[in-house]
Amino acid sequence: MNALAARRRHPAAIALLILVGLLVTGAAYAALAPKPAQASTVSADQVQQGKKLFQANCSTCHGLQAEGSKDGPSLAGVGAASVDFQVGTGRMPMTRPDVQAPRKEKVVFSEEEIAAMGAYVASLAPGPAVPDQEFTDGSKGDPAKGGELFRVNCAMCHNASGAGGALTRGKYAPSLHNVSGKHIYEAMLTGPQSMPVFNDNNITPESKRDIVAFLHSVDKQQNVGGMALGRLGPVSEGLFIWVFGLGIMIGFAVWLGQKSA
């Protein structure tokens, strides 16, 4: 019995138990941790095509190898999702240096060209991939849950209805009306400009889909009260009342005074 007890107390046994515990913990985390929305694969030809497009159109600001310069940041590690968002919304390439790149209706590159540039940037360093359609389709999400998440995490900048708002130093939170689910998801995933990053550990892919569902439901709402006034809440409504309501009352009072005179 003494020999058996000594073997159990051997330091190697303790190390073995610790190793087994670490393996079990790692396996459990791998099984339960949030999975990325997509892990896409690309071909070498697509990467080379993207490199040519990048060097011809983006290297002036971001450098020939996307290493960055005084006019643009390094793109190593931003991932294909950032490229898809910035170029797919017309924000890039910028027409001129400014405090913020505005969204433009006209997109310079095709979807294939954007995907190629994204593949090239993704090959430089690991980064967020373009999300799968399963997680960007708002029709599959829960608008009620998405509304709660949006009001907690996003409304302080983008307004409770996603109408946008002013920030400091000339920057602003853009309107989220009529924005595709993919670009909404990518903005949360990559944190463009002044926006913080909401990775899948902060907000899961399913919760991001719920936020997309909420914003798309806002797009479909009718203004039963008449004019929306930008959906900016009591500020725009109060200004309207002061300017037009009070103006009408003053005009009516002047008319009554002239009539009585």
UniProtKB/TrEMBL annotation:
Pfam family, one: Cytochrom_C
PROSITE patterns xref list: CYTC (PS51007)
TM annotation in the entry: 239-257
GO MF term list: heme binding; iron ion binding; quinol-cytochrome-c reductase activity
Annotated binding of heme c 1, by residue: C58, C61, H62
Entry membrane topology: Multi-pass membrane protein
Record-listed heme c 2 binding positions: C154, C157, H158
Boundaries of every Cytochrome c domain copy: 45-125, 141-219
The UniProt record lists the keyword Cell membrane: yes
Keyword hit for Mitochondrion: no
Reaction it catalyzes: a quinol + 2 Fe(III)-[cytochrome c](out) = a quinone + 2 Fe(II)-[cytochrome c](out) + 2 H(+)(out)
GO cellular component: plasma membrane
Keyword annotations of the record: Cell membrane, Electron transport, Heme, Iron, Membrane, Metal-binding, Repeat, Respiratory chain, Signal, Translocase, Transmembrane, Transmembrane helix, Transport
EC number(s) given by UniProt: 7.1.1.8
PTM (free text): Binds 2 heme c groups covalently per subunit.
Enzyme class: translocase
Signal peptide limits: 1-30
Top-level taxon: Bacteria
Subcellular location: Cell membrane
Subunit structure of this chain's protein: The cytochrome bc1 complex is composed of a cytochrome b (QcrB), the Rieske iron-sulfur protein (QcrA) and a diheme cytochrome c (QcrC) subunit.
PANTHER family from the UniProt entry: CBB3-TYPE CYTOCHROME C OXIDASE SUBUNIT FIXP (PTHR33751), CYTOCHROME BC1 COMPLEX CYTOCHROME C SUBUNIT (PTHR33751:SF13)
Protein's name according to its UniProt entry: Cytochrome bc1 complex cytochrome c subunit
